[in-house]
Amino acid sequence: MMYPCCRALKYPATRTLIACLLCMAAPLAVEAQDAPTETTPLPRTTTQERQVNPTGLSEAPRTGWHTDFIGPFRGDFDVSFGVKFWPDRFILRNFIFGGQMDLLPGVRVRANFRRREGEQKAFQVDSDEVYLEAFNQYRAPTWNAGLQLRIGHVRYLHFPYPDAIAQFDQVPGISDLYANTETDYRSVVLQGEAALNSGWGVHWAGLAQGFEGDPHVVGRVIESYLFYRSDFGRGWHFEARGGWLAVRREPLGQSAQPGGNVYLGKQIGEFNVGLLYENKRREHEFSGLMVQFRPTEVTRALGKVSFDYSRRPIEGFSVQIPVWHGRLNESRFVRSGDVLVGEVRAVRIRTLWQQGFVRNQYEHRLASWGETGDPRLHCVVTEEPWYLQTEALVSPHLIPDARWERDRMGPGQFVQRVTYRYYRPYKKENGGA
Description:
The chain is about 5% helix and about 50% strand. By secondary structure, the protein is mainly beta.
């Protein structure tokens, strides 16, 4: 992603930083909170969760194993279409229907279908994501861990929640929309992470062609590394990885390469700005620049329609227009007299690739307390507005010149914080006559 005002400056990395700051700067808007208003402290984490989820739940979250189950056959669904426009063109595209649904504790399904690009017939359907997921997480006083298995077609890997370096990751591309090729991760993806509160941890991800693809490839490790994450000083953040890192060149999902990377970021007012350096055995050195935004009127307006600007191969602005958002076995209203008995906090993330195609969405379950899995409970969901949270640029060059700009990749990240609250009818005690 890159905004057109960014072209006015001489150096790409600098212009992205300055122009995005100017484009996005706006007074913070306060999101209305429904009852209860008091919150507990957030559990300790070394990921970027606190950037999006700065407040805790109304009661302390579960410790030990937790799937943060929202209840059987509860979920949400979306219908939208995309538009790319410029003074001399107007293109309708990216007609999609997507959704997710919980089945059992730690088991859910996700699907995202689209009208096939370039087809004359109206109902030629392709899939962006289709998978069955099983996951579990563990929270202890001094460490956290998570394990996830997905079977199907996957376009998003971050689990249990992305750190700063992960937001520079290459997003699966769009070449499969116009040619007989694969750009997603299929068919079996297994991931795990364990992190101490001190900042040290280990992450692992593997990929196997379980049902389709090259029959001679059984499986491969796509990343396996040790990491360190730390906040220090006045708003500084540092991360480092060492081990076998993910390959950035397409096709994604290749065997990991030995190497390392470091990230250093700083909070500057209402923004976080950071730099990345990466070196692997066979790939070029990479450098990157990232700006993270707070929810404002401007970033929410951009997030509502997944706004993007791109120059190559087709210059123009891109938006994804929401048509319908449905909820399954969920409500937006609290019934009179009901009593709160549980909560689940989640964050939904969409990663956007160049040319403005929205092709994935993932809901990270963060914490929960009380009763949440009983289907007889009245579930009330509060969905805060989507907003543009991250703009990252990464290039196989170190000097921010014309080559850096020509070969850069520009993943963007949109986020939405969600709270599920569960209610039972209030029962009065029987009194004597």
